[in-house]
């Protein structure tokens, strides 16, 4: 596969995974949790580096997952004790991210690990960091990890589809019929953490947040059916990745930033043109009724 092909495939995998997970974030009114986790994983990455002094390896993934899970646990802990969820997310997010930034500034030194890299990612380097797979050959490590994560996301969503649907729309009903709501919440937060961590190094925090929230918000405007929303959201993620790449080539600018910008374009089109919730539909319907 060509250099451009690997970048597009990697970004599309991010769009697929984040688009699927993002639907449930939107339905559960937890969109800002995506922003929180995508930033607080920085603390886990920095901590793993300080322990091992190596910038690559499974320890970085483990550290980031622990940090993401810690974010979810702390937010839930504060919320259970009377703090509003938005406020809990804001406090935990800013505190853990600030600790990560301070550690980078004071402890990391000359290593290639900085806040800019964390925010914008290094998707242009993805095709060069390859691993050898038996029977397949060389494949970028980030692409392979994202393929595994997408598989996990699909398996978990399909295996617990009914539970996700009920707990997202009516947690009270879910608890009354015996569905373990707390377990499902933490399972979902773990899924968000794993998805965020897998995409974090390749595309950076900004694109992770954009891909988790905006395609799902766009899909929400087009349909009220969960299955259709999942398909639309993941499709919008892929479209944003491809369109964003060619915008970046055209303008000679950041690829991740352009892909995040493309998600905004998709949302704007959805906001204007969706048949049920679109801005244009609100003005067209009354006219049609009066004419009839």
TrEMBL record:
Keywords: Cell membrane, Membrane, Transmembrane, Transmembrane helix, Transport. The keyword Mitochondrion does not apply. It is found in: Cell membrane. CDD domains: TM_ABC_iron-siderophores_like (cd06550). It holds the Pfam family ABC-3. Gene3D superfamilies: ABC transporter involved in vitamin B12 uptake, BtuC (1.10.3470.10). Its main location: membrane. GO terms for cellular component: ATP-binding cassette (ABC) transporter complex. The chain crosses the membrane at residues 6-27, 34-51, 57-75, 87-106, 142-161, 173-192, 198-221, 228-248, 254-273. It is a multi-pass membrane protein. GO terms for biological process: response to zinc ion; transmembrane transport. Belongs to the ABC-3 integral membrane protein family. This is Metal ABC transporter permease. It comes from Brevibacillus invocatus.
